[in-house]
Amino acid sequence: MSDTLVIIPTYDEAENVRPIVERTLAATDDHVHVLVVDDNSPDGTGAIADAIAQETDRVHVLHRTVKDGLGGAYLSGFAWGLEQGYDKLVEMDADGSHHPEYLPWLIELADSNDLVLGSRWIKGGKVENWPWYRELLSRGGNLYTRLALGIAVRDATGGFRVFTADALRRIDLAGIASKGYCFQVDLCWRALEAGLRIVETPITFTEREFGVSKMSGNIVRESLTLVTKWGIDRRVREVRALVRDHHPLPSVRRNAHAVSNPIN
What we know:
About 45% of the residues lie in helices and about 15% in strands. The protein is an alpha/beta fold and about 260 residues long. Strand 1 (about 5-10), helix 1 (about 15-25) and strand 2 form a beta-alpha-beta unit. The protein is globular. Mean pLDDT is about 85; it is low at about 250-264.
């Protein structure tokens, strides 16, 4: 009986999909399955995934007719995996930047944690083949996220992670609106708000060799806007709680009001 599903969203990843799936199967045992979620890639990625699925029953393919971002693809994959009864669900990129060889350790950590984050920015983590400005952008974005949301997670934007099925059921997935890479911050923030146990473990992140990165200025702006909004909402809640705790409505006044308006 398989208990873990590795979800790999794809869009125009024809050069990468077979190598990453084969590496995933080689790095794990029969308890781990792969779901390729293809957003109707015009380069034939979906057909390649179908061919792999015909070769092994450990690989499945979910074809989507729309391209509505990374978040939409993962939410579809989560829904499919939960419906099929998997106990753990993994997020992993198709471009080889996430090394499948880490999967056994990440999956093992999920035995005692609700969410396991493969982290580039804790001790032991690193990136390979990134220009300095990409690293600066990622480190700066994570620092801003920590300050705005008041969290301790060092790599909230990373996309190599393992959720338990119970954790996903406790997160308000229906309320997620972010579609791009801010989806990762959104999920992490919701997990923390739900009181889930989160652990980070170091990984090496390697820039893709084939294909084109999906990162864009619009994705960065979406992330900045949403994180700022969530940070403001958090501060407002804290201020309201502080005012309520320091200036509670006197119970005598509440009781007096109730007596002065009797129901006959």
